[in-house]
Amino acid sequence: MRVTVLGAGTMGAGIAQAAATAGHAVALRDVEASYVEDGIADIDDTLSEGVERDKVTPAEREAALDRITGTTDLAAAAAGADLVIEAVSEDVDLKKAVLDETEGHVGDDAVLASNTSALSVTELASALDRPERLLGLHFFNPVHLMRLVEVVVAERTDEATLETARGFVESLDKTAVEVRDSPGFASSRLGVALGAEAIRMYESGVASAADIDAAMELGYNHPMGPLQLTDVVGLDVRLDVLEHLREELGERFRPPQALKRKVRAGKLGKKTGEGFYVWEDGEAVRPADEPGGGAAEGPR
């Protein structure tokens, strides 16, 4: 299968890596050459780490990299694609514009997918002449480790599109969970609800960030606590999802004030080096401040 990934950020690069590792030819496209180069460098780093840990052989690493072509040319990236996965920023107008432009460059049998974590796939499909060819393929970070892909069926998604998506997910050795297009789908809706409540507990001083996370890791076997996960996802991304869900589903998804303050301060989590934790070399090294806000949070 020829797969095109639009957007070379964290998720786009991860999806491209997973597809290439599974044997698919991949075109990775972004609007700036530097973004594409950074995305491919991230893929190289992840695969090289896999070699160091004996999870990937040197030959597998080279083969995966050889299957990836980077470009800024949308027409060239989309030409001949069997599947195009949009992984640009979580902005409905941007996604609709990208999908609309992409449809003009793909063949009649090509399937289009969005990696959105919360936006309406049915609304995104409204930008297309053939909305039946679009569905959601919601991957999870880090893509190369997470086994789940949420397949989001829009109002007009047809069976042929769904079958292509199922086959692709299976080829990645991942598990597809099919959900009807609704606000937050299943995973984002449940995930942000847990994360938001953890933040409210943190800001009211119920427990420290580390202890809240430990409770979920040790008590419920979560691989990562909700506050550390929020740092990994990005506090700004979590805030955007909560605001969208609040608009769609009501006040139970109201974003906590502690989350808003950190985003305003540019403390977006792992990608900026600080969120609920301080991050160094990609690892959480210590909690950023004390429960209830602490000095770093300022008065409430």
UniProtKB/TrEMBL annotation:
Keyword Calcium: no
Domain of life: Archaea
Presence of keyword Ubl conjugation: no
Keywords attached to this entry: NAD, Oxidoreductase
Pfam families: 3HCDH, 3HCDH_N
One GO term (biological process): fatty acid metabolic process
Residue intervals of the 3-hydroxyacyl-CoA dehydrogenase NAD binding domain: 3-181
Site (Important for catalytic activity): H138
Entry's Gene Ontology molecular function annotations: NAD+ binding; oxidoreductase activity, acting on the CH-OH group of donors, NAD or NADP as acceptor
Domain 3-hydroxyacyl-CoA dehydrogenase C-terminal per the UniProt entry, residue ranges: 184-279
InterPro entries registered for this protein in UniProt: 3-OHacyl-CoA_DH, 3-OHacyl-CoA_DH_NAD-bd, 3HC_DH_C, 6-PGluconate_DH-like_C_sf, 6PGD_dom2, NAD(P)-bd_dom_sf
Cited Gene3D superfamilies: N-(1-d-carboxylethyl)-l-norvaline Dehydrogenase, domain 2, NAD(P)-binding Rossmann-like Domain
Residues reported in the UniProt entry to bind NAD(+): G7, A8, G9, T10, M11, G12, D30, E90, K95, S117, N141, K271
Name this protein carries in UniProt: 3-hydroxyacyl-CoA dehydrogenase
Organism of derivation: Halobaculum gomorrense
